[in-house]
Each structure stands twice: as C-alpha cells, then as structure tokens.
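Practice problem: DUF4292 domain-containing protein
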Amino acid sequence: MKKQLYTLIVLLGTSALSFAQTADEIVAKHITALGGADKVAGVKTAQYEQTMSVAGMDLVGKTSVVVGKSARSDISVMGQTITQVVDGDKGWAINPMQGGTTAQDLPEDVVKLQKATTEPTGMQLAYAKLNKQPYELVGKEKLDGKDVYNIKITKPEGTYSYYVDANNYQLVGTKSDITVQGQKVNGSAMFADYKNTDGLILPYTLTLTGGGMPGTVTAKVTKLLINAPVDPSVFAKPK
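Answer key — structure tokens:
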C-alpha cells in the first residue's frame, strides 16, 4: 500500500511538472510566432496610428510607447482630443469630453494598470515570460471557433487570461477580471489581421468589449513604426 501511495505521489508530481513545462513550451512557441525572442527583446519603442469605431462614432487615435516605461495615447472625437499618459510611476490625463481642460493626475492604482500600455499590443504574454512573471496553463478550450490554450497570469489587481491559437500560436484574445478603485471590471479583447512589421508579426485589428466602454470598440492600425525615435517631452505633464 505504501509503495502504491508513493507511486501515485510520483505520478502526480510528474504530471504537474509536465503541465508547467507545457505552459513554457506554448509561450515559447508564441514568442517564435511573434518573430522570436531577439526581435521581441529588441523592441524599444512603438508608435501607432489607428482608426476606431465605437457606438456609431468614428475616432482617430495615436499612441507612442517607450517599452516598459512610458505610453501616451491621443484620441480625437467630435473635434476634441482625449489624452492619457503613463510615465514611470506617474500618470495624467486630459478629458474634455468630461469637462476637463487641464491635465489631471491619474490615481495610483490606475497608473499601475495602465503600465500594461507600455508594452506593444499583442506582446504582453511575451513580456511576461521575458520579465519572469509567473503564468500557468489552465487548459485547452474553444474561442471564436478556434482551439486555444488558456494561459493565466495572476496579479494583485486580478487575473488575466491569454488565449493562444493551438495551431499557429498567435494570440487570439485576452480576458481580464480585475478590481479598479474598488470596482470589479471585466474586459476582453480579440486580435486579428496579423501582419509583418520589421520582422515582427503583430495584430492590426483589435476588438474590445467591457471594461466600462460604451459598447464594442473596433480599432484598426493604419500605421505602425517600430524603434522610431520618441520625443520624451510628449510624456511631460503640462503645467
């Protein structure tokens, strides 16, 4: 009986180890699908121009990213521009649609969440591995008719699920279940229209739902520059 129990423990331990290794293998293949670890690690800046559609309105967006440090987004709608910036552990925003005409500091927990925007779209799971963040394989499921692997990352604010295509290892979508300023917020994103940009295979169409947004947001990248110079002054809070 003791021998059988020992064998069971060994088998369970081996199974758990194999499962963890499989998660690493999936993420490694995902990074290869992006263009490879060297290409991913070599990205220092990214600049996007986008068109967006939400609640019947057409918007134009521009985003500048210094990887792991700073991000600025400017969204033009109805003749107004909404700006949000994260720079290190600080952040600010101007939102004339809510009557704001001057830059307001972002709350600390919002800044922490928005740090994710300092990573180019579709590369968050790759950076999780490169930055040695823990992740786990939940299992294999269906998403939008595709077989996907569900890789989960747990952070202080909640959980993030990354759905990796079981065939080509591209990121199909993400889901988040987090707490922001004491409120539960659920959101999801779907990625499509992958294109080669300077050796990186990145999504050019992003569909967002939830997260307090007024309906579904569809964003299409019209221009993407990798490692072009970004003027640091664009992240400075106006006085």
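Discussion: Helices lie at 2-34, 37-41, 108-114, 124-130. Students who identified this feature from the tokens alone can consider the problem solved.
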